[in-house]
UniProtKB/TrEMBL annotation:
It comes from Myxococcus stipitatus (strain DSM 14675 / JCM 12634 / Mx s8). The chain crosses the membrane at residues 84-101. The keyword Membrane applies. Pfam families: CHAT. Keywords: Membrane, Transmembrane, Transmembrane helix. This is CHAT domain-containing protein. Residues 845-986 form the CHAT domain.
Length: 1000
């Protein structure tokens, strides 16, 4: 051992420069002591990885507790870096060591292939492994678990590295249960189909084993699907990608699409693999379609009771499918024309009562049996025709039922009228339903009452009613009605453009429907999940959900219209106009109205892929959408859709419709439909002004939409995107206005706006001390819009606000060392460095005191607010990023944009969000929804936040910015100068510094 051995730890930690690494490699090849230490470090690292990734039995617990991470120090600190095990020591040290090794020939790779069953259900692309087929044997109970961590033979890894076989090293780590190392080596490979297929495999395994919120599970599966879609687009017969895609689809519950993907593998004729694929496809398809056939048989059995007095009573089906059988049972009793026909249903009533509890159905059958069938029978026959679809529930027949005294018949007819969007006396429906002793009917009328409240714009009342009813339903275990409540809530939240909450109920309903064997509800929730995924820009998952829905009910024309209309919008949003047009034409094959989604897509496509019959199709869709009356906000949205379409043929007529839309929307600006109408209308008008080169009109419209009065007269950047159209306006230091309008965008704007501003316009801003940036969704809140050498900020309008409180006691509120919920398993953040100078305003909330309710209360009177805590994004909890705080008494721990927006910050504070990804913006096309926007809406004067993950040390950077601002420096200048000095002192932080954004 000599002095060079003291550097082993630095070598393992990757803290040496290139020259030092080369010298230490030479020493390592000669020193037995260091070689032993090197191997020990690798083994310890693998053991640490094993401790951090225990096996997960997903059948028992989807989110098991994990042991805490090791304490910081030495190489172990690698385990604590954000994002997990970024590059484990074994891979790092090996990559530093092996350049001194001699290249070896291609040796046997048998050490990678275990005897017996294979380790992974998925397929790797490494030929030496995949060509040796072995069957997969799942754990008892069918759960799929990660392979246990095994030591990787260092000599074999050295040989692989010596010949530059990074793919082999990645495969070795993957098969030995070390996925993070595998991912690190795969990402060092150039982009290729095999690499992306293996990365998708890693995303699938992470989704299966990771536990945590269900939306994170879905996000990893979306990542896998996107990768596999890219592979199969380039190589449609790629066997591993087809196989792994089937597994991902199966993990999502999309069994028929999974079966189709396995069938494609079976066609390839691979030894072993094709036979297994064929067996898997057959099992998936048969099990799924059998479930559908059984449900349809149950439905048909109840329909038979309406038309055939001798039809068998479906007692066995009532036990297996109690929901749909009970639904048909009500119709069968109402349609019975004699006492005997009613009483023969008593055994079915008894079976259903036994299933649900109580005797409510038996009592009802007895009551109906005592009615005067001389009077009731003709009405019962008319009711049967309503059920069979040959008599609409409207007009004279409804009057006869109303006046007949047969209240159960009238109640059934009112339910059918409401469901079919016919005029219905909802007040009577509610009265009759509530008067019954039947929980099924009482819950049904709550849904109908909520729909009325929703149409009247009282969404908060509808939301409360549905949530209370769902809680009641769960206690009563009326599963079928619970599904209708889950669906109503998901529909409501989607209409309110709150996809995070919609996801909770859609996912819950999807699982419940499968458990309850309610085939039709399965299809409904599939389509809701597709809508949620589309709202969150998870386009590949949305397409998969819709595709599965179509495969399950191909004979249903209404479903085909709905699905293809939604696929058309998805393809349009993915900048595939020809595919969008093809899907829209398929939606029109059933000759049904397109619905709102189809109408919007048709309006958008008028600019690039029009068709001669589009005007007639749009008129029919809009007329159907207006049937039964609509709210002012919905009418405004329909006018904006119509105006955008008409504008392509007649500028003046289109302008007139859009201005009517804007005027109507401004009557209820807080409504979601109204906000969409405003966004879509202004988008069309601004783009039209840009197309005509009228820069002043375009800027005036942007200022009007963003509630910015007056619009800055110099040093201004304004950007508007409307799908393929881009408008960029610049006012220089002298006030000269210039612009560029283009129509050549061919892909969605992602998380970075770099390159969006043309170089010739960027030059106009070089003389500006500060640049105000005006943007509309989806540009607002993106990083990279302007270079770091400029001082700039996003300007946010908020209309008329009460003046900020002046004088009196103010405070500098600091939230730090938060006691986050243990269930999140978040690393404890380090304590803040005490302020360098006395801060008499400083008020700290720490530990368990830093709850959402306490923080919101303290913020109302604060003049400065700093949050030093974890930031999270969870699509199931919030549509924008949220800040993690200590749990309140009700268990809530998240400070969300919704909660902040409902607060009044009376002292117009400066807000510093030193939390990961706090500036992340929800991908909504009609509004910019984020934590910074929420703070500005609540009254903050300026907000500083990062759009990406930041290290623990970032808190000190935010403190530096705050000190400069408190000293009188303009916030944008303080941010620019602090960023430059921090980058010089901490070059390793350059990655995230550019992602710190300012909103004013």
């Amino acid at each position: 051992m000599n002095s060079a051995c003291n550097d082993l730890q630095r070598f393992l930690d990757g803290q040496m420069n290139a020259g030092e690494q080369g010298r230490f490699r030479e020493h390592l090849g000669r020193c037995l002591h260091c070689e032993a230490g090197f191997l020990e470090g690798i083994q310890l690292e693998l053991l640490a990885h094993k401790a951090l990734t225990p096996e997960v039995n997903r059948a028992e617990d989807l989110s098991p507790p994990r042991p805490p991470p090791p304490e910081p120090g030495g190489w172990k600190s690698l385990l604590r870096r954000r994002g997990g095990l970024v590059l484990l020591v074994a891979g790092l040290a090996l990559s530093l060591l092996v350049p001194s090794l001699e290249h070896a020939g291609v040796d046997s790779m048998s050490w990678l292939v275990n005897e017996g069953s294979r380790v992974l259900e998925a397929r790797v692309t490494y030929p030496s492994v995949d060509s040796h087929y072995r069957p997969f044997v799942p754990n008892r109970g069918g759960a799929v678990s990660a392979p246990g961590v095994e030591m990787v033979p260092i000599q074999e890894l050295s040989k692989l590295e010596a010949r530059g076989d990074l793919h082999g090293i990645a495969t070795a780590y993957l098969l030995r249960g070390a996925p993070r190392q595998a991912e690190a080596f795969l990402k060092r490979l150039p982009a290729a189909a095999d690499r992306d297929s293996d990365l998708a495999l890693l995303a699938l395994e992470d989704a299966r084993q990771g536990g945590g919120p269900v939306d994170m599970h879905s996000a990893r599966l979306e990542e896998a699907l996107v990768l596999l879609e890219g592979v199969l687009r380039a190589a449609p017969r790629h066997p591993q990608a087809l196989w792994n895609r089937a597994l991902v689809l199966g993990e999502l519950g999309l069994s028929l699409q999974a079966a189709d993907s396995f069938s494609e593998v079976a066609k390839l004729g691979e030894t072993g693999w094709s036979a297994e694929a064929e067996a898997r496809a057959r099992t998936l398809r048969e099990e799924t379609l059998l479930r559908g056939r059984q449900w349809k048989a149950a439905l048909a059995s109840t329909r038979d009771l309406l038309t055939d007095p001798a039809a068998p009573v479906p007692l066995e089906l009532a036990r297996e499918h109690p929901g749909i059988v009970r639904l048909g049972f009500y119709d069968a009793v109402r349609a019975a024309t004699t006492r005997a026909e009613v009483l023969r249903l008593q055994p079915l009533a008894r079976a259903l009562d036994e299933r649900y509890g109580g005797q409510v159905l038996q009592r009802w059958v007895s009551q109906v049996a005592e009615r005067d069938f001389a009077r009731r029978a003709p009405l019962a026959r008319e009711y049967a025709r309503m059920v069979l679809g040959t008599l609409p529930p409207s007009g004279e027949v409804m009057a006869r039922l109303r006046d007949s005294g047969e209240e159960d018949l009238y109640l059934g007819a009112l339910v059918r009228a409401a469901a079919g969007r016919h005029p219905a006396d909802v007040a009577t429906l509610v009265r009759l339903g509530r008067a019954s002793e039947d929980p099924w009917m009482q819950l049904l009328v709550e849904v109908e009452q909520a729909k009325v409240e929703q149409r009247e714009g009282r969404w908060w009342a509808a939301e409360k009613r549905l949530l209370v009813s769902l809680e009641t339903c769960q206690k009563q275990r009326v599963v079928y009605r619970c599904l209708s409540l889950e669906r109503a809530l998901a529909d409501l939240y989607l209409e309110l453009h709150r996809p995070a909450e919609a996801f909770q109920h859609a996912w819950s309903g999807w699982g419940r429907a499968r458990e309850a064997l309610e085939w039709q509800y399965e299809q409904g929730f599939l389509q809701l999940l597709a809508d949620v995924a589309r709202y969150q820009h998870s386009f590949t998952s949305a397409r998969a959900y819709l595709g599965e829905s179509l495969l399950r009910m191909p004979e249903d024309c209404a479903q085909r219209t709905h699905v293809h209309s939604n696929i058309a919008l998805l393809e349009w949003q993915r900048f595939r106009p020809k595919a969008a047009r093809e899907s829209l034409e398929r939606a029109l094959e059933c000759e049904r109205p397109l619905g709102l989604t189809g109408a919007l897509t048709l309006s958008e496509m008028a600019r690039s892929v029009p068709s001669g019959n589009d005007a007639q199709v749009l008129r029919r869709a809009l007329a159907d959408l207006r049937r039964g009356g609509v709210s002012p906000g919905r009418e405004a949205l329909l006018l904006s859709i119509e105006g955008q379409f008409v504008m392509e043929a007649s500028r003046d007529a289109g302008h007139s419709l859009i201005h009517r839309s804007l005027a109507l929307a401004e009557q209820e600006p807080d409504g979601v439909d109204a906000r969409k109408a405003l966004a879509f209308g202004y988008s069309a008008l601004i783009s039209e002004a840009g197309r005509e080169g009228d820069w002043h009109e375009a800027l005036r419209l942007m200022g009007q939409e963003l509630l910015l009065e007056p619009v800055p007269t110099h040093c201004l950047l304004a950007v508007s995107l409307q799908h393929e159209r881009t408008l960029v306006l610049v006012r220089s230091a002298t006030g000269e206005l210039k612009g560029v309008f283009s129509t050549d965008r061919q892909e969605p704007l992602h998380d970075d706006a770099s390159g969006l501003v043309p170089a010739e316009l960027l030059k106009e801003l070089t003389g500006c001390a500060h640049v105000d940036v005006l943007t509309r969704p989806p540009v607002h809140g993106l990083t990279g819009l302007l270079p770091d050498f400029l001082a700039w900020s996003y300007r946010v309008g908020r209309g008329v606000q009460p003046p900020a409180v002046v004088g009196g006691r103010s405070s500098h509120l600091v939230i730090t060392e938060v006691s986050s919920p243990p269930s999140l398993r978040l690393q404890k953040l380090g304590a803040l460095t005490p302020p360098r100078v006395p801060d008499p305003w400083r008020v700290e909330l720490r530990g368990s005191e830093a709850t959402p309710s306490r923080v919101l209360s303290e913020m109302t009177e604060a003049s400065e607010v700093e949050l030093h805590t974890h930031g999270l994004y969870s699509a199931s909890m919030s549509d924008a990023s949220m800040v993690v705080l200590a749990p309140d008494s009700d268990g809530s721990f998240a400070l969300t944009a919704d909660k902040v927006r409902q607060t009044r910050l009376s002292r117009a504070p400066l807000v510093l969000l030193a939390a990961c990804g706090a500036a992340r913006t929800a991908p909504f096309p009609h509004e910019s929804f984020s934590l910074p926007m929420a703070f500005i809406s609540a009254g903050a004067s300026a907000v500083l936040a990062s759009s990406v993950e930041i290290p623990d040390t970032a808190g000190a950077f935010f403190e530096k910015v705050r000190e400069r601002i408190r000293a009188g420096t303009r916030p944008s200048v303080a941010l620019r100068d602090s960023r430059a000095s921090w980058r010089e002192a901490h070059p390793e932080d350059a990655r995230w510094l550019s992602h710190v954004l300012l909103f004013e």
